[in-house]
Amino acid sequence: MLAKELSIGEISKRSGLAVSAIHFYESKGLITSRRNSGNQRRYTAGVLRYLAIVKVAQRVGISLDEVKETLGCYTYGLKLSANEWEIAAKKWRVVLDKRIETLRRLRDELDSCIGCGCMSLEDCPLRNPEDTLSKKGSGAIILERKF
User: Fold this and answer.
1) How many Å from the N-terminal Cα to the C-terminal Cα in the chain?
2) Angle at CA 26, nearest 5°, toward 98 and 96?
3) Cβ contacts of residue 48 below 8 Å, gap of 6+?
4) 11, 48 in Cβ contact below 8 A?
5) Element (H or E) spanning 92, and its range?
6) Measured in whole angstroms, how far is the alpha carbon of residue 105 from the centre of its chain?
7) How far from chain centre, in Å, is Cα 89?
8) For 34, which DSSP code?
9) Does the pTM exceed 0.85?
10) What is the pLDDT along the chain (147 residues), one digit of tens a residue?
C-alpha cells in the first residue's frame, strides 16, 4: 500500500508554514517532493515531522545550513531514523550549550552596563583602550572569551 500523499496546501495547513516557506525550504534542498501527473508537488506525511524539526531549530538559532549539514535533506518517502535523530540531537546540544553560556555571560556581565550611562571607563569591563583587543580578532572578544 502506498503512503498517502499530501498537497503543498495540506502541508502548509498542517505545518503552520506558508506555502512560500515550504517552497523556500525545497529550493534550499532541505525537503523534496515528487510531481504528480498534473505537475503538482506531492509530499509524504513524514515531511511534516522534518519541517517541525526545521522550525524548532530555527527558533533556537540553528541555521538552515546547520540543519542541512546535520540532517541532510528529507528524502521523499523516508523518515529520520532514531540513530540519525540521536546524532543530530547530540550535535545540537553542544551548539545550544555554547549559546546558553554566551547568553548567560551577556546577562551577567552586561546587565549593569546596558543603558547605564556610566562614565567610569576605569572600571568598565568593556573598556578597550587604544583598541588593544583588535589584535585578538574581531567581534565581541570580551563576551566570547574562554574561562
Assistant:
1) 57
2) 10
3) 11, 14, 15
4) yes
5) helix 82-110
6) 21
7) 12
8) E
9) no
10) 456 899 999 999 999 999 999 999 999 989 999 999 999 999 998 899 889 989 999 998 889 999 988 888 667 667 778 888 888 889 889 889 988 988 887 777 765 565 555 555 555 655 665 666 677 777 666 666 665
